[in-house]
Specification:
Elements lengths: L1 H13 L8 H16 L6 H8 L13 H27 L3 H18 L1 H7 L9 H23 L8 H20 L8 H19 L1 H8 L1
Helix pairs in contact: 2-3, 2-4, 2-6, 4-5, 4-6, 4-7, 5-6, 5-8, 5-9, 7-8, 8-9
Length: about 220
């Protein structure tokens, strides 16, 4: 009589939600999987907990609410994007055109490689006032501002506040990225995608070069 009872108790203990070695990572990865299925707005922390096999209270050990979780993902996305663009700039060398095209493609490639993370970064559900998120975004923008300042110092780009000149550049980056994840380049090879993205970015860059100002004065 005693034996079966102990076995049953043992089985019940075994079915308790498991202790995850890296709960935070499990939560963020699970959230990205749910975002891929239905978007940032279409899941709850309760559903996420069930998906990864932990108690309903477990997510709150790391995140105050779903908004905090998505904001953390947006910060992570900003860091990854910054690092990819920085690496692309480094590999492109000193040539301004090569650097501009490399950075633009890195932005688009990030969106294609990490569509869920990219979606979260610009979702309405994140806390846009979060200081860490603001710093994360500023780090990426600083790369663009730095490029513009460098190009102006070399006499290669039109005069103007970097913050103003950066707006059409970022709009081009983001617009192409949105087209990419919407399937605009579906079925195309990596080289074909790069060619299309480079052509668009090159056209924008040509409009910002100092030569255009000189042509107007001629």
């Amino acid at each position: 009589m005693v034996g079966p009872s102990k076995k049953g108790a043992s089985k019940r203990r075994a079915r308790k939600p498991y202790h995850h070695g890296d709960l935070r990572r499990a939560l963020t990865e699970g959230a990205l999987a749910l975002v891929a299925e239905a978007g940032p707005q279409a899941f709850t922390l309760r559903e996420l907990a069930r998906r990864i096999g932990v108690s309903h209270a477990a997510p709150y050990r790391h995140f105050a609410d779903k908004r905090a979780l998505l904001t953390a993902l947006a910060i992570e996305g900003g860091t990854v994007l910054h690092d990819r663009i920085a690496l692309a700039l480094e590999r492109a060398g000193d040539d301004l055109r090569a650097r501009f095209l490399a950075a633009g493609y890195a932005y688009v490639r990030f969106a294609l490689d990490e569509p869920s993370l990219f979606a979260v970064m610009f979702a309405r559900e994140i806390d846009a006032e979060d200081p860490q998120l603001a710093r994360s975004r500023q780090r990426s923008l600083s790369l663009l501002f730095g490029f513009i300042v460098d190009a102006q110092a070399r006499g290669a780009m039109v005069e103007g506040a970097p913050e103003v000149l950066a707006q059409p550049v970022w709009a081009m980056h983001h617009g192409l990225a949105m087209l990419a994840i919407a399937g605009r380049y579906k079925g195309q090879s990596e080289d074909e995608i790069r060619e299309a993205v480079d052509y668009a970015h090159a056209s924008l860059l040509d409009g910002l070069l100092i030569r255009r100002s000189r042509d107007r004065q001629a």
